[in-house]
Design brief:
Layout lengths: L2 H6 L1 H6 L1 E4 L6 E2 L15 E4 L3 E10 L20 E8 L4 E7 L11 E12 L4 E10 L2
Parallel strand pairs: 6-8
Antiparallel strand pairs: 1-2, 1-3, 4-5, 4-7, 5-6, 7-8
The structure holds zinc ion.
Length: 138
């Protein structure tokens, strides 16, 4: 992703902004233009508060590598890390890292809340990308 595209998309990545269909109360993240439930084209912006629960998760112990063996995993510095599918209270599901907990604390069905964290920092100019991660609600 180019830097300019990244900055244009910041509200979405940074604030969990999606869409809501006022006709049938369906919610979308990432945002979309047409409701897949009722076909409505006039969806409203909706800011998710980031509360949800863990649907399933996996523990990543080996960083993703390209065929030459170079590490291309943006989470490589924090291995092992927990990658989960989180279902937001409003319904949409998304994939995100679970942070600030021990691996054995993570269970299917646990409540989580979104936090905003540095996702990746790279290059000589130190382009830092921020995005959402989730932590357990205690
Ligand atoms: Zn709808």
């Amino acid at each position: 992703m180019t830097v300019s595209k990244f900055w244009r998309n910041i509200p979405q990545y940074y604030n969990l902004i999606g869409k809501k269909c006022p006709e049938c109360n369906s919610y979308y993240f990432p945002p979309r233009d047409v409701c897949s439930q009722c076909g409505n084209h006039k969806l409203e912006e909706h800011k998710f508060d980031g509360r949800g629960e863990i649907v399933t998760f996996t523990i990543i112990r080996t960083p993703l590598m390209d065929p030459e063996g170079e590490v291309i995993d943006i989470h490589a510095q924090t291995i092992p890390y927990i990658l989960a599918i989180v279902k937001l209270e409003e319904g949409p599901k998304l994939t995100a890292e679970i942070v600030d907990c021990e691996i054995d604390e993570v269970k299917i069905g646990k409540e989580v809340g979104a936090v905003f964290r540095k996702i990746v920092e790279k290059g000589p100019h130190g382009v830092i990308q921020y995005g959402y991660k989730f932590k357990l609600v205690r």
